[in-house]
């Protein structure tokens, strides 16, 4: 094949994107906007539904954030973009096969696991990743059958980033308010039965080092029917933290909100949310099978040579009885079959999005990475747009170096035939639109934006039924 023609109208560039979350869709969008490059993009996802963490990770009581789906929808409806849902990399399709059918591959697989605390008792029942709790209440099919210990009065949330804030808020918010969101039915029912009275959100460092954003923190302080508790002593800043508060507006705003919360008298509300700082869990205790509490150690801040303030245990410890602990200390990537992996960072090793072989540090031609799998779990949804743009720029720059796949496999038709042979229950974007329509129709009489379908089998049965009816009318 003439290398110069790759990406021309006579031979469009064939690209596979593994992962239909924000980074995958931003990459697809950027690819379709490259002037002078004709491209055909196939987006794969193991779920029948697109949009990744926008559907499965954004809190149900934050619907405005989900409005970004409209931009992804426009990308998916472009004629040069296709969605292949319910197709899992490493199970249904593999890397070698993708290289046979696509000139370039983009891995947009995110960071689906969690970081561990590495403390004794962490594996006891009741000690779970916050990522699983988030997936559960958002109706992720792989987590819909989980159950959580909401029959105790105390829950510990480890971390004070926005994920920790989300799970604490969902536990504290009134069920009547959640009932008007797209929260999964199974989660709503369990929360309705919940006996939780106290949620303890733990930060190992001080309020000036907390990772939550000001809007998220402010929302916590305004929860109806909840007493939010902050120890005023935790708000006293050391000199370095005081300087940071003077220089960084968000820290100053957060401290103002925390001070207002600390000054507010308790009302005797049915639920309490304790925002605690300078504490770390050092052991999970239990009956040998299930956790019954968490040993907490008081911390102090110590400055290292770089000026970073790290937490150091003081030896002062106390037991906090609790039946559930949600670990929200960071997402973490997982290795993919036959692909290099950086265990330390939890990412696919890369330079500016180009996949590299860590043994040689050489670029793996034609394979790329975007999003959290590229840079680690940092930033907000919009951060993925610039990230994807950077990777796509490398892809375009590499075009003259690519020979392209064999002519008999370099077509959309050949790729689709291969995919459907590997996974007959492929879900197209049109199929997803049917699921989307049904969810919205079911939610409308309940005053909800949608009633989520949380099981693959039901989604696939709905699609099959619709196609059968359509065939009957032909």
The share of residues in helices is 25-40%
Estimated radius of gyration: 24 Å
CATH topology description of the largest domain: FAD/NAD(P)-binding domain
- Taken together, the total number of domains comes to 2
CATH C-level of the largest domain: Alpha Beta
Number of helices: 16
Mean pLDDT: 95
Question: What structural class should be given to the helix and strand makeup?
Answer: alpha/beta
Provide the spatial order of strands within the biggest beta sheet: 3-2-1-4-18-17-16
Number of strands: 18
Termini gap: 42 Å
Task: Describe the global form.
Answer: globular
Going by CATH, the architecture of the largest domain would be 3-Layer(bba) Sandwich
CATH superfamily of the largest domain: FAD/NAD(P)-binding domain
For the sheet with most strands, the description reads: 7 strands, mixed
Enumerate the spans where pLDDT stays under 50 for 5 or more consecutive residues.
none
- Give the strand content: 15-25%
